[in-house]
What does this fold into?
Amino acid sequence: MDIMHTADFQTQLTSIMETLAKTAVVEISKLLKENASFLRLEISRCTSENVSLRKKCHFLENELQCARKGSGKMNGTEALSCHPGLTDTGHRPAIDNVFGKEWCMNLWRHEESHVGEQEDTHLDSTVIIGEPVNLLEEESDMVMIKEEAFDDCSSGRNEEDQDTVKESNIQVDGMPNEMTLTPLSSNESLHEQPFIPSFIKSNWVRSFQVPWDRMPAALIQATSTGERARPGPRREFVRIVVAAMQAHCPNPNLAACGEVARNIVSTYPLTFGDISEEGEQLGNGFSCLQRQLKTRVEHVNRDVLEHRIRRPRRPSMKRAGEQDSYTMKRARCKVDSYGCINWQPSSIPEGETAESLEMKRKVAAEIFQSAGPKAAELPNVDDLMQQTYVYQRHMINSCPPPTISEIEGHWPFLFTERGLCRHFKILTGIDIRSRFNETLIDKSKRILNYFSRQRLKWSEEIQSMLSEIEDANATDNNRIAISAILLMMKYFKEKDNAVFILADETSTKMSIENEISLPATPRLIMLGETLLTSSKWFVSIEGRVTHSIEDKLDFAEALSVFFGCFYVFNIEYQESASATLELIQRFFVRINPEGTKCTSKSGTSRRTGSAVQRKPQNFNTRVATFMQRLSEFEWKTSS
It folds into this structure.
């Protein structure tokens, strides 16, 4: 009997312990799920702050060294050693130790570049110019990017400081061409705000205190629970903050509004930050709040003329030729690594050499010639393309960039659906096919619901598009996704042919190239009677058809190839479709770096159709507004 009682006791004890363990695991899982997004944001913010502080210290150390060496000038001659980027002779990018063979130089058409004598003004600046990138060393160069300075409304600004700022900006735009060949790595300063010297900032911005004690009760509750701020209380708090800002400066500029917005978001990121529904930070995290603050400032000052007048800017001393040449090449380097995590690998795979990589490239090309595009499904081809990834990126990233035809001649598997998508995954860390399969249909349905339930508030073009979608009975997945993108293009007032080109459903690759004038930037060619009823697709780049989507694949696969081309081949978004492409990037693919992949300085007015100057943006305002309105609409209709 004692043995029986002991066995029953052990059984009951085991059952109780198992129940307790399962309950604890469930509770711990709930706790982790609730706090995971907040922890990710905090880790991201701390990492960003550490990197910014490290760069700030590096910048100040170089400033101090230059100042010390400048104080010891002999006979009016300044030591050149404080300018590590300037030498007596020019350099090619320091890649010869890996790809410096004769066959490689002929392959990528690299030539010796010689830098002439530099003007004295290039030696007087305190800007630090980095060395050319070395493929075998860590890329630690820092590029200073001009940013709008804060207004000092106290009229006590030191003119000498202003002159220093102007001189630095002139030097940045007048860098020698050698620097323009140095690509930025994906972990450079694109994901953080560029460092702003302390003398640029106004005293009132640095000492400004956000009036937290006057925050509406609804916002106080939201900040305590980590919820999103509702539109009404958020607008009320913006009015309170702007009133407090105007007590120091009647007309704060955009940079000042950005600094205040950064402070607010850093304190309560989940309540005020730009965060997607998946808990990911959008851009720098405070662009929407910055724009709200600036809009409120302009609204308050709409009838106060003296507050809206700014001091005229000093005329620039830059030479036009140097400015245009450098700006174009610097923008290219910045855009190339936009949103990428492995844009320029720093070393070749272990056990590989330049000769072995070239051998594998030739093997892959021979397999393609003998077996055709279907060979992309072979496992050994996947291995060859992965092992030669550094080789592929080095050719694509070379400056001047190779043509699409040259890339296809050396890497034909990049022009298959599987080869391009696998390259995109290594480049960005995202499986674009899986991402579209997960999000495209669900989010397209949400977009259709958003427009259809508010039909009367939209323009005639959008209403006409909604009627066409209903007539086409867009119920299958392909039509739902195409309808959503077409509606977004109407909403952004972008023309359909900026993304899509309609062709006859019996068209072939050769007939399309012969009969249709294809643009240089990527287009998705839709084969069918209408865009909505298309069932076969091609992708064109630089005036020729480059990718043929197989019949068994759907529109999600075609969109994956089309969008992936912009990243894999370092192509900027065309200005005529920049908003739609950025929405696809941020809303569907969920790539959310700072800045934009469209650096065009000019554009077309949506209202007048005339040419206008584009303003530089961290986050496309039309995309940000739409995502915010969609979220607010769904919150209102669900409650």
